[in-house]
Amino acid sequence: MPFAGLNPHRLFAGERWSEGLLEDRMDAVAEETPVALIYNDQPHVVMMASPQDLEDFAVGFSLSEGLIQHAQDIDSIKQLDHPEGIALHIRCAPSALQDLGERRRNLTGRTGCGLCGAETLAQAMRTPRQVGEGSHVAPRALQKALEHLTGAQPLNILTGAVHAAAWCDPQGSIVCLREDVGRHNAMDKLIGVKARAGESFAEGFLLLTSRASYELILKASMLNIALVVAVSAPTGLAIRIAGEAGITLAAFLRNGRHTVYTRPDRLHPVSSH
């Protein structure tokens, strides 16, 4: 199957059937592209991703997977486009790479795959890090972020097919957002853009358009993200890992409501006094 190029979406002809009527139309369709991450000339993993913000993706993936400790550990990222996909050549000092040889992910990571290529149960079920205290946020801040979330997703507005991960300040303003066909990739891209800017995750909260799965909570613990909010459901394992890491996990964010599963004290209601 040919590589479609660097555009995260393309137009495709389609025939829409609606209430017995047929209509020819052109639809914007999200692309998914094989992206290989290669560290110091050693192939590590191929992920299916949206072909945009790929330097952010390389940095964020490296940090959230625990392959490096700091964004500055990466000396250079070189992108090479091939007929089959994109190769990201990531150059680090050998002393900066953590357990790369022991944790090679030799399988292709499918879109939406967070554990593809893990070779042992121990690799798949890494112990989360304890997070710091983080921010205490009023519920109205979550509602404010939700109100602005749809308009902050240009690729999803076009295609209706991608996830987003957003960083919000304690008042609920969306500070930064990244989109991708894979929910894990969107989060890695968000981590990467903030890390490259030298910004921490101490103040504010993470907002996800997807379900809150175990892998996303583990990535949050790696980056000291203390408050994670999802518009969809959590998994049971995500709740248990969030509790173990001290993360506040809220889900089912809808207009006027959400459900908090762990550390509810960070999401305190506004006092009436």
Number of helices: 7
Strand content: 25-35%
The helix-strand sequence is EEEEHEEEHHHEEHEHEHEE
At CATH level 3, the topology of the largest domain is: Cytidine Deaminase, domain 2
Per CATH, the superfamily of the largest domain is Cytidine Deaminase, domain 2
Q: Separation of termini?
A: 63 Å
Major sheet: size, sense and barrel closure?
6 strands, mixed
Mean pLDDT: 90
Q: Which class best fits the helix and strand makeup?
A: alpha/beta
Number of domains: 2
Strand order of the largest sheet: 9-8-10-11-12-13
CATH architecture of the largest domain: 3-Layer(aba) Sandwich
Low-confidence stretches: none
The dominant shape is flat
The whole-angstrom Rg is 19 Å
Helix percentage: 10-25%
- Class of the largest domain in CATH? Alpha Beta
How many β-strand runs?
A: 13
